[in-house]
Amino acid sequence: MGAGTPHLNLVLTLRPDALETLLYYASMSLRLFGLLARDHGLQVTVGDRYTPPQAYDAVISIGSVGEDVPVWVRLMAHQQGPTRVLRLEFSDVHFAAHRYAAQEEHVAQAVAFARDLPPGSRLHVHCAAGKSRSAALAAVILAETSPRLGDSAVAARIRAVRPSCAPNRVILALGDARMGRRLSRAFR
C-alpha cells in the first residue's frame, strides 16, 4: 500500500447463542480474516450488542429506531479515552419502502465516518445480532475503502468472519447504487 493510503480496521459483530460458539467464531474469524485481509490492514474481532469490544478507536452503533445505545458504547470514552461513535437508527427490514428501512444518508454517514478516521484506526460495527445490518454496512465500508477489492472478495471476507451472515439487502442495494458495484449479487 502507498504511503498516503488510509488503513481501516473493520470489525463485524456477531451474536452467537452460547459461549462455546462465541469462542469458536472468535478463534476461527481471527485466524481466517487475519490471513485474508493482512494486505489491507484490516482486523476483525467478534462481539455482539451486549459484549463490549476490546480497545477500538471508533464504533458504528446500529440500532432500531428509539432503541438505547448499548451501555458499553457510552462507557468506552470513559474507560479508554476519546472514542468516536456514530449512532445509526434503522430497522432490519429487507424492503426499501418500509418507513424504518436504511436510507442512503445512513450509508453515506457510515462511509464518511470510516473515511474520516486516521490511518490505522480500529472500527467496530455492531447491530443487535451482528449478521444483517452490521454485515451489510461492513461490506459497503470495506468495498468503499478498498476499491480494488472485487465484490466476491468483499463477500468472502465477510463470510469468513460470519459464515451464516445474511447481509441486509437494502443496505447492499444502497451501497451498489452508490459505488456502481454488485455486492448484492456477490452475497446471493
TrEMBL record:
Domain Tyrosine specific protein phosphatases: 105-164
InterPro entries in alphabetical order: Prot-tyrosine_phosphatase-like (IPR029021), Tyr_Pase_AS (IPR016130), Tyr_Pase_dom (IPR000387)
Gene3D superfamilies xrefs: Protein tyrosine phosphatase superfamily
Name this protein carries in UniProt: Tyrosine specific protein phosphatases domain-containing protein
